[in-house]
Design a protein that fits this description.
CATH topology of the largest domain: FAD/NAD(P)-binding domain
CATH superfamily of the largest domain: FAD/NAD(P)-binding domain
Radius of gyration: 23 Å
Strand content: 25-35%
Bound molecules: 1,4-dihydronicotinamide adenine dinucleotide
Shape: globular
CATH architecture of the largest domain: 3-Layer(bba) Sandwich
Number of strands: 22
Largest sheet: 7 strands, mixed
Structural class: alpha/beta
Length: about 450
């Protein structure tokens, strides 16, 4: 029986970051991970592989749509799907091996196998039981399905199956117009698949700025994706490799069906706690099946903590990473802290969509007076040069104090641009602070400054 200061369960972005930080702060650390490779959903079947496919298919789109416009004449690339999947797998391999290297470098022990907690202070992996002063559960999440929809990961797939389809489908129905549905839907649409998204609500990407969502839908429609909004999927039947999706339109209860080669179920994820033995331990859960924590990631059982997708909050890798780092610091006697008001969200389509902080909708609901500074990428020279003038930046600031309350971007590199607002918000900056900061020309980031200027005396290029 080995003894550790900390055993982390799960080597996804929450778990591995927690382990590395704890080891850096002098703790003796082990991580239990049952997958063959480290990195969790994010590195193996989530963020990283999907970004590889998004990059490959964006490049294809550039070659098909824009090369000629730039005077680049030649044979258009053909898609070798198996080779594209091999490239994606190579990217996964490089990243998961990178975590293995970091574990060795920081002397973090990998306990290979699925872990259970027989009692507080003990973690069982396979036939061995290890002792730990502290346990951090970072076991992540798994796709949530719908009643009447059976996943076979061939014809009816989750994001995991969608990253490794045998062949390119002619038609795909995506259930759910959220992040996964639109990122993966966009990959297949660019590869020539006829993609239809069925979304329960009357809009895409719920929780995001409504105007961004509308613009996003218009741009994706132009890229060839179809949308059926306000429709509840009732079931999927599969016969000889073809699927029929039954749905009901909420406005008039009319019933419809769609025939397709592949169905991607992207209706959210649920916490993964199987095999941990939480019931027996008496760990308190929320009504939604998450592990309940006290605001400092402590569960109801002393010495057991939980972070990431398995607890409340947005299911985002970087939120889990921040929590992992904070718990590690706390266990090492420092003050761990996460600012939940400044967690960006990014959708990695083209254009990218990014947001942080409050939305107009949330501020109205809270009755808070605010002003809006908006700037279109049409006024940004750099964006026009790369055929991406369609989106905009919106900055929300307090009506009286000018303090930045949120930002919403749809446009080129939005996922990187958003971070200047994140830093500004962490420092309690005003829109004027951002507007007075010199931004290099010509960059996409000038659009951020212009939106900040629009919160005051006005943007220059509008
Ligand atoms: P999601 O919560 O983003 O979207 C699910 C969508 O499905 C919602 O729009 C919902 O209204 C719709 N829906 C639910 N039931 C339905 C029904 N019966 N018929 C039609 N539509 C229905 O969940 P998603 O896209 O599956 O992603 C799961 C999690 O993974 C999210 O928390 C997401 O933030 C995270 N993720 C983040 C990424 C990123 O940061 N780029 C990438 C991929 C996933």
């Amino acid at each position: 029986m080995a003894q550790f200061d900390l055993i982390v369960i799960g080597a996804g972005p929450g778990g591995y970051v927690c382990a590395i930080r704890a080891a850096q702060l002098g703790l003796k650390v082990a991580v239990a991970e049952g997958r063959e490779t480290l990195g969790g959903t994010c590195l193996n079947v989530g963020c990283i592989p999907s970004k590889a496919l998004l990059h490959a298919t964006h490049s294809l789109h550039e070659a098909q749509e824009n090369f000629e416009k730039m005077g680049l004449i030649g044979a258009k690339p053909k898609v070798d799907w198996q080779k594209m999947l091999a490239y994606k797998d190579d990217v996964i391999g490089q990243n998961t091996k990178g975590i293995e290297f970091l574990f060795k470098k920081n002397k973090v022990t990998w306990l290979k196998g699925w872990a259970g907690i027989p009692e507080a202070g003990k973690v069982r992996v396979g036939d061995e039981t290890h002792e730990a002063k502290h346990i951090v559960i970072a076991s992540g999440s798994e796709p949530a399905s719908l009643p009447g929809v059976e996943i076979d990961e061939k014809t009816v797939v989750t994001s995991t199956g969608a990253l490794a389809l045998d062949k390119l489908p002619k038609k795909m129905v995506v259930i759910g117009g959220g992040v996964i549905g639109l990122e993966m839907g966009s990959v297949y649409a660019r590869l020539g698949t006829d993609v239809t998204v069925i979304e329960y609500l009357d809009r895409l990407i719920p929780g995001n700025d409504a105007e961004v969502a509308k613009t996003f839908q218009r741009i994706l429609k132009k890229q060839g994706m179809d949308f059926i909004l306000g429709a509840a999927v009732q079931g999927v039947t599969v016969k000889r490799g073809k699927a029929t999706v039954a749905y009901q339109l909420r406005k008039d209860d009319s019933e419809h069906t769609l025939e397709t080669d592949c169905v991607l179920v992207a209706t959210g994820r649920k916490p993964f706690t199987q095999g941990l033995g939480l019931d027996k331990l008496g760990v308190k859960m929320t009504q939604r099946g998450q592990i309940a924590t006290d605001g400092h990631w402590a569960t109801s059982v002393k010495g057991i903590y939980a972070i990431g997708d398995v607890i409340e909050g947005p299911m985002l890798a970087h939120k889990a990473e921040d929590e992992g780092m904070a718990v590690a610091e706390m266990l090492a006697g420092q003050a761990g802290h996460v600012n939940y008001g400044v967690i960006p969200g990014v959708i990695y389509t083209t254009p990218e969509v990014a947001s942080v902080g409050e939305t107009e909708e949330s501020l109205k609901e809270a009755g808070r007076a605010f002003k809006v500074g908006k700037f279109s990428f049409m006024g940004n020279g750099r964006a026009k040069a790369v055929f991406q003038g369609e989106g905009f930046v919106k900055i929300l600031a307090d009506a009286e104090t000018d303090r930045i309350l949120g930002a919403h971007v749809i446009g080129p590199m939005a996922g990187d641009l958003i971070h200047e607002v994140c830093v500004a918000m962490e420092f309690g900056a005003s829109a004027e602070d951002l507007a007075r900061t010199c931004h290099a020309h010509p960059t996409f980031s000038e659009a951020m400054r212009e939106a900040a200027l629009a919160c005051g005396d006005g943007a220059i290029h509008a």
